[in-house]
């Protein structure tokens, strides 16, 4: 039987996504490369199935690109396929970020490194500002959306718990952002599969998380705390991988004082020169907090909750997507993400040491991003220019 009919092997899934993960730069744009692999080249999924998967991955927390990779594996070979695709896609970014993080600890104070990182910190402000503009333009469609997004931004700036803000935004969205111009779609019927079978895979992932954290609590409480923090960040990172960055910043810098803001921003900048999702900044944080073991624990824990939610939600998503309450709640979550990005742009701007040249670098970087220049080229250009003018 041809592979497109029988389904790919786990080795094929892993190796295909390993190659893709080693060359995937550009954040959400990576989804297009996943579609080319899974739909156009290998025919593992139909076009309609893949589009439905993208909608699901945007509705659940976590990196959209990582979730899309897992969704392809899930549809092709269920949970083992999802894990194979997830591991293959994320491994190149993890290994490269681990190397860069160790190099940062050893060479971060050298003049060349200092100049480069100073420029990249200003770039981080431009990246977050560009993300706030891009997502705001997509999700703010009227006064109600603008008010919700502004309220979220103000609450974040006031230091209110981001997790309470996100939950409140979802409830507010369910109440005030219900679609009114069209009739709600009737819920799609669930497949005739016993509930226990639908819950078997999520229960397995939940068990892995419980065993992991339980073991760490016994042997190393610092690693357990690190893992729990990353799980909390991932579980509330609605809006794509970029939404994890400000949540992680608040936990790692503001609440835990594990590192200064400047070092965390170095991690974000290094995350932009690695392939894969920006949430790989967790590897940087983990390595700085607890070495290689910390990097492994932080990386596993920052991806595990969103994989659990994806596997749990996949059988039910078609039914939920027809609910006006569900549509309103996801709209509220998206707007809380916009507010989060606005507040973090302001906060990062405050903690960044500005000078005349760095303002010029940030302005040109933001202009390039707004005009659609690939983020990798912007990062490389800023790093090169910073050696001469910063």
Structure description:
With 390 residues, the protein is an all-alpha fold. The protein has one domain (3-389). 78% of the residues lie in helices and 0% in strands. It contains 17 helices and no strands. The chain has helices spanning 3-6, 10-21, 30-41, 47-59, 64-107, 111-139, 143-157, 162-176, 195-219, 221-235, 244-255, 261-272, 281-313, 317-320, 324-351, 356-370, 375-389. Helix 7 (143-157) crosses helix 15. The chain starts with a helix and ends with a helix.
Shape: globular
Order of helices and strands, N to C? HHHHHHHHHHHHHHHHH
Count of DSSP-assigned helices: 17
Terminal Cα span: 60 Å
Report the sheet with the most strands, covering strand number, pairing sense and barrel closure: none
As for the number of domains, it is 1
Provide the structure class.
mainly alpha
Please write out the topology.
Blueprint: H1 3-6, H2 10-21, H3 30-41, H4 47-59, H5 64-107, H6 111-139, H7 143-157, H8 162-176, H9 195-219, H10 221-235, H11 244-255, H12 261-272, H13 281-313, H14 317-320, H15 324-351, H16 356-370, H17 375-389
Helix pairs in contact: 2-5, 3-5, 4-5, 5-13, 6-12, 6-15, 6-16, 6-17, 7-8, 7-15, 8-15, 9-10, 9-13, 10-11, 10-13, 12-13, 16-17
